[in-house]
Amino acid sequence: STIYYKPNLTWKEQSQILDAGQKSSADAIIETLIIRARNKDGSKMFSKTDKVVLENDVDPDTIVKVVGAINLGSSGFTKEDAEKK
Prior knowledge:
Helix content is about 60%, strand content about 5%. The chain has five helices and two strands.
């Protein structure tokens, strides 16, 4: 499926990611995904309650690739790349 993303962050959202990063880089990456990943209609793809599932049931390499693509404005990351995982 296609992942849309929120291109800009508010100060509060940036602070949430930085605070998560003080715990671990994995927490910061997951927090970035929760905050920025969106459905086609702009609604959030993930909620705070999805964090446990993302931490325990999703391949970390996939999360890193998706967040990396979001942070780079999706350059070089295609729907086909996501479907390979």
